[in-house]
Each structure stands twice: as structure tokens, then as C-alpha cells.
Amino acid sequence: MSRLSLSQSQAMQSIALPADLRKELAQLDRRLRWVNLVKGCGSLLFVTLVLSALFLIIDFFAPLPGLIRFGFLATLTITITWLFYHWLFVPLSRKRRWAELAFLIDRSFPALQERVSSTVELSMLDEEQRHLSSEFMMSRLRHETDKRLSRVDL
Q1: Is residue 120 classed exposed, middle or buried when 0-12, 13-18 and 19+ CB atoms within 10 A define those classes?
Q2: Which of 36, 54, 67, 145 could join 119 via S-S bond, C-beta 3.0 to 4.6 A?
């Protein structure tokens, strides 16, 4: 099962997507998820340490009653839970589409001249629209995309 979260209609349409391109897009998705995980964990750890240090410093210089300490602990817990959800859970569970990943590649490598996005979008055409396009041009575009992607280190 692919790590990309595709709907069934996208999965059926991606059959025409070249295997090499599908592999590159899946690797890009895994890398983006890894970056989101590391960035979210680092940010969450930083905020946790700063808030904990702030609450400890306040408590050290002004001894607080138990109710206020409990309020600080509740605030810290709620903040960390909310940040965990928004900085880790949401980015990691986000569904990316092939076209979105292809756009990221084309934006990062302008020399590809939007060939990756075009290849992905043309491969996702349904049968009715596929009859309107030229098979020769689609295969040529796929070939050129594979050729140019082989020279680029994603």
C-alpha cells in the first residue's frame, strides 16, 4: 500500500502514471512527512521547554499557592495538546495529491518547465477526455519527463 493517501478515483487514474514518476512522488511525500515530523517535534519541544522554564521561574521568585500552580500545569497541558494537534497530527495526516507533489517538484526545479505537472495531470484524465488528447504527445511528454527527472536529484 502506498504511503500516499489517494482516493479510489485517483488510484484508478494513476494507473497511467509512469512507475518511475510515481516512485519519485511517493519518495517526495515521505520526505515531506519526515520534515513535518522533525519540525513539529522540535517546535513542540522548544515551546514546552520555554513555557516550563517560565512557569518554574515565576514559581521560584514568587512562591505560588497550589491552585495557581495547578492553573499553570493545566495551561501548559492544554497548550501542548493544542500544539501537538496542529503542528504534528494535522501535517502528518494531511492527504497530498499527485498533482500537488508534482507542482512542488516543478516549483523547485524550473528547468523541468512544468513537465512533471503536465505529465501527472494528463495521466489523470478520465477516458472521455483521454480520447481528445494525442497519445503520441502524451508518450513523448512522459519520455521527456523521465529523461529530465533522471538528471535531477530530488
Answers
A1: buried
A2: 145
Q: If phi over 0 gives left and psi between -120 and 50 gives alpha, with beta otherwise, what is residue 114?
A: left
Around 18, how many Cα atoms within 13 Å sit in the side-chain half-sphere? 22
* Cβ atoms of 97 and 10 closer than 8 Å: yes
- Closest residue by Cα to residue 115 from 124, 131, 103: 103
* Cα atoms in the Cβ-side hemisphere of radius 13 Å centred on 65: 1
Task: Report residue 63 as a C-alpha cell.
Answer: 512562591
Which residue type, as a one-letter code, is found at position 5?
S
> What would the pLDDT profile of 18-52 be if each residue is shown by its tens digit?
777 788 888 889 999 999 999 999 999 999 999 99
